Amino acid sequence: MLGMGSALETLCGQAVGAGQLDMLGIYMQRSWVILLTTALILSLLYVFAEPLLKLIGQTESISEAAGVFAIWMIPQLFAYAMNFPIAKFLQSQSKIMVMAVIAAVALVLHTFFSWLLMLKLGWGLVGAAVVLNSSWWFIILAQLFYIFSGTCGRAWSGFSWKAFHNLWGFVRLSLASAVMLCLEVWYFMALILFAGYLKNAEVSVDALSICMNILGWTIMVALGMNAAISVRVSNELGASHPRTARFSLVVAVATSFLIGILISLVLIITRNIYPSLFSSDTSVEALVKELTIILVLCIIIDNVQPVLSGVAIGAGWQAVVAYVNIACYYLFGVPLGLILGYKLNMGVKGIWYGMMTGTIVQTCVLFIIIYRTNWNKEASIAEDRIRKWGGPTAHGDNDVEKTAET
Question: Which parts of the chain span the membrane according to its record (predicted)?
Answer without folding.
Answer: 32-53, 65-84, 96-117, 123-148, 169-195, 207-229, 249-271, 291-313, 320-344, 350-371
